Amino acid sequence: MTDDESGMRVDRFLEAHFPSLSFSHIQRVIRKGELRVDGKRAQPNQRLQTGQAVRIPPLRLEAPKLRVDPGGADQQKDREFLKSITLYEDTDVLVLNKPMGLAVQGGSGTKRHLDGMLEVLRNPQGQRPRLVHRLDKDTVGCLLVAKTRLGMIVRAGSYDRTMVRALGINVTPIFSLVFGLGAALAAFAGVLAAPILSVSPGMGDKIIIIAFVVVVIGGIGSIKGAFVGALLVGLFDSFGKILFPSVSSLIIYALMAAVLIWRPHGLFGTA
């Protein structure tokens, strides 16, 4: 069991890894004790934990019904279309700019929809991106798609924590972990800034604008971009104070403007 699958129900685990299995088949395998967790029988609603060993019996899987697609032309078109409407992407989440007239999920008479297109992004482990929320067919807006189960829980919980709890997911420890991680990063930043700035509750106000400039120059979502952006901002600010002291405070903003004109998404940002 991986960290991303920790807390997943046994039946949901089988559904995720073997999407062609029917609900009744999954329940039968678990009920007969053919599936074992750490060598013991499991219940369908039992939640798995990181490091546990899951023994899965030989399964008779039906071949998935694939649509006729000579040469994978339709799949390639779906990949290109998803790439063209991608606003942001990282290891956990995908943000899509949903156009008007395109359904998010399938239904009666609906053959082309975003949920079906996400099948082309299935990873080698068999996991596919999952919708965090829905938008109406004629609505234009940002659509969040989770690439990992943890990302899905965090994003969905930020929208409607009560609904996520109703689905049997305990979001309290997950949100506590996310909050703790954010607080730890803020504390680490304070330790780094303390030797340079005076320590006070509002000490971050002096550098938050510079940090924003660094992120914009490097590209939102790029760690490498933030590193390169910080180096550029530091160099331009230092040389600006020596060579052009009267306008030194404007130099880093001029750098940001020049980068945005050349690359609107930053040096390492994705379109």
Span between termini: 34 Å
Binned strand content:
5-15%
Q: What letter string, H or E per element, gives the SSE order?
A: HHEEEHEEHEEHHHHHH
Overall geometry comes to: globular
- Would you tell me which CATH topology of the largest domain applies? Pseudouridine synthase
- Mind telling me the CATH class of the largest domain? Alpha Beta
Overall mean pLDDT: 80
Could you describe the 3D structure shown?
The protein is 44% helix and 9% strand. The chain has three domains: 53 residues, Structural Genomics Hypothetical 15.5 Kd Protein In mrcA-pckA Intergenic Region, Chain A; 97 residues, Pseudouridine synthase, CATH 3.30.2350.10; 56 residues, no CATH class. The model has no long low-confidence stretch (mean pLDDT 80). It is an alpha+beta fold and 271 residues long. The two termini are 34 Å apart. The strands form two sheets. A four-stranded antiparallel beta sheet has the order 4-5-7-6. Strands 2-1-3 form a three-stranded antiparallel beta sheet, with no helix packed on it. The protein is globular and about 80 Å long.
